[in-house]
Design a protein that fits this description.
Quinone Oxidoreductase, Chain A, domain 1; Rossmann fold; seven-stranded mixed sheet; six-stranded parallel sheet
Length: 365
């Protein structure tokens, strides 16, 4: 069958809308009719050539998506036709050691998907890669069944799609990875979609001090709307941002989260965490080969430094909870969407995300 998709043919080139061939689902796979998908900074990192190991051109980007199962391959029991699903960037097989442990989302299958599930897309007989084996910017997509999660049919899929990445990563880092406790102090660097979700998760967790950090003063209003108690712009401070955070948190924050992909912000996030017990989560996508020059004193005084992979959110087990939180009125999703476009206008979303003028742009099919 055929599918229309946004294809990246080279680094920093505009996405091209193409008609591709898509094969039927094989064993362990499902055919999903995509309803909505949002663009993430990780997609941009691949498009701009900063993360070469995550896919090869030509490639269909997109991993923050939601749709409806149209068909399933042999041996698939996790989903059925007509199920509403969101994509999971990290699959959850449910049977490997990490999955059975229940404390991590690092399913062993995530490291072997490329060999087990060849791309279902081709153009003129040549394969077209899919980002993270998902390729959400395609009208139809064949994906591993362990890489989708069923969600409540009551949630609009143009909102559910956000839970698969920006919510899973931002809110998941606070709720699942760091497990922020009530009354704690939390600092979030970067007020993009992931940072805002970290802020609102800190609010949901009952944090007493929630400090949002961003160099764009226009981000303050949204940061406070999502739950920030303080907003710091490093460019307007007379002293350093680390010193200001230490002053506001009695020596350092209990939890810090870096969600910009900036090496400078990453170092600030580590240093702004309390030396005795602070927990720092590095969430932003750093360019390939980035080295962070920590000193032995910074590493050896009790700090915990962790890299967040999708917020330690388990794809099938945890992601549906975010949809329920939205339906209950606890989790804000509508406020994350700055613009909604058709697939043909996807480059408008690319430009807006690059410029920082939008939080999330959603493509509706």
């Amino acid at each position: 069958m055929k599918t229309r998709a946004a294809v990246a043919f080279g680094a920093k080139a505009p996405l091209s809308i193409e008609t591709l061939d898509i094969r039927a689902p094989r064993s362990g796979e499902a055919l999903v009719r995509m309803v909505a998908a949002a663009l993430c900074h990780t997609d941009l990192a691949v498009l701009d050539g900063e993360k070469s190991g995550l896919g090869a051109f030509p490639i269909v980007l997109g991993h923050e998506g939601a749709g409806i199962v149209e068909a399933i391959g042999p041996d698939v029991e996790l989903v059925a036709p007509s199920d509403h699903v969101v994509l999971a960037a990290i699959p959850e097989c449910g049977v490997c050691g990490p999955c059975r442990a229940g404390t991590t989302n690092q399913c062993e299958w995530s490291f072997t998907l490329r060999s087990k599930y060849p791309t279902p897309l081709s153009r003129d007989g040549a394969p077209v890669d899919t980002f993270l084996h998902l390729g959400a910017f395609s009208q139809y997509m064949v994906v591993p069944a362990i890489g989708v999660a069923k969600v409540n049919r009551s949630i609009p899929l143009n909102r559910a799609c956000l839970t698969s990445c920006s919510v899973a990563t931002g809110a998941g880092t606070v709720l699942f990875l760091q497990q922020v406790r009530p009354g704690a102090s939390v600092v979030v660097f970067g007020m993009g979609a992931i940072g805002l979700n970290a802020v609102q998760a800190a609010r949901i967790a009952g944090a007493a001090i929630i400090i949002a950090v961003d160099v764009n003063p226009a981000k303050e209003a949204s940061a406070r709307a999502f739950g920030a108690t303080h907003f710091l712009n490093p460019r307007t401070l007379t002293g350093g941002v680390v010193e200001e955070i230490r002053a506001l948190t009695n020596g350092g924050a209990d939890y810090t989260i870096e969600a910009t992909g900036s090496p400078v912000a990453a170092l600030d996030a580590v240093r702004a965490s309390h030396a005795g017990w602070g927990s720092c989560a590095l969430v932003g996508v750093l360019p390939d080969g980035t080295a962070l020059p920590f000193t032995d004193e910074e590493l050896g005084r009790g700090r915990i430094i962790r890299f967040s992979m999708a917020g330690n959110t388990r794809g099938r087990s945890d992601t549906p909870r975010f949809s329920e939180m939205y339906l209950e009125g606890t989790l804000m999703l509508d406020e994350l969407v700055s613009t909604t476009v058709t697939l043909d206008a996807i480059n408008e979303v690319v430009d807006g995300l690059r410029e920082g003028s939008i939080i999330r742009g959603v493509v509706e099919f």
